[in-house]
Amino acid sequence: MRRFLPPTLAALAVLTTVALTPSLANAGIIAKGDIVKFAKGLGGADGGGEFLLLKKNLAGDWSQVGDPTFCLEVDEFIDFNSQFVVGGISKQAVQGGVNTSSGDPLEGKTEFLFESYTNGTLSGFNGASDNQLANAVQSAIWSLEGERGASGLALDLIEHAKDQESFTSASVVVLNLFKTSILKNALNAFEAFDPNNDSTWDAVSAYHAQDQVFYAHAPEPVSAGIWGLGIATMMLPRFRRK
Fold first, then answer.
1. What residues are paired with 100 via a beta bridge?
2. Domain residues for 148?
């Protein structure tokens, strides 16, 4: 005889899976196929971030989603006048950057600095202003990812992260972005694109844009759902005893 999970436990299992999977937990905020654009945030020296991420809704309106992003490569680009489409959410820059033409996984130190910056624990680091800190974080990310050298405050940040080589955070992810023209000219290749399968990359390489490091907060309804179902599950034995 088949045994099935009680509905409450089944729902809890689904919500827990969603919450613990970066690309799924973040789906309520940003997901593959979303149309996005960028606005200037703090910093901005040398064409880097931070950038404000704006998502287009079904009505055609734009709203900011999540926390500011930063660039990963220096030889790929975004601009504030163009729209982009999210091709995937992963842990690596697709097609690398100046240091590699293949996938370039996030460095642990990059994840540590970006999460620390996003959570505010680097605020006022070494007496830096907000703009100075944003510029230094971008420079440090480029250096840690093998894109270019760093100096000054960026080197201080890299030193701050020196013991974090193995650091990883489920919330720190990469938005793999493409030019929206791919939706007209190479839709099938776009739909087949998988940031974790490099055999799907060549067909979309002409449309690839700048990858962005992004903080994937789990949506509050998921957390609330898990909490509520957890309480309900704990109560089940009490009801069954009566």
1. 97
2. 27-217
Paired with 172 in beta bridges are: 215
Q: What backbone phi and psi angles, to 5 degrees, belong to 134?
A: -60, -45
Average confidence (pLDDT) over 71-83: 91
Q: What is the pLDDT of residue 47?
A: 87
Report pLDDT for 96: 62
56 exposed, middle or buried (CB, 10 Å; 0-12, 13-18, 19+)?
middle
Burial of 172 (0-12, 13-18, 19+ CB in 10 A): buried
Considering only CA atoms, give the Rg of the chain. 20
Judge whether 138 lies within some domain.
yes
Q: How many domains does the chain have?
A: 1
Report which of 50, 66, 73 is spatially closest to residue 176, judged by C-alpha positions.
Answer: 73
Does residue 216 carry a pLDDT above 60?
Answer: yes
Interior/surface letters 202-217, b for 16+ CB within 10 angstroms, e for the rest: eebeebbbbbbbbbbb
Query: What is the CA angle 210-37-34, rounded to 5?
Result: 90
φ/ψ of residue 187, rounded to 5? -60, -45
CB-based contact 180:74 (threshold 8 Å): no
What is the per-residue pLDDT for 77? 84
Q: pTM for this structure?
A: 0.78
Domain contains 159: yes
Task: Give domain status of residue 233, yes or no.
Answer: no
Q: Is residue 237 part of a domain?
A: no
Please give the pLDDT value at position 233.
43
Model pLDDT, residue 104? 85
What's the average model confidence in pLDDT over 230-238?
A: 44
Please give the residue that has the higher pLDDT: either 2 or 29. Answer: 29
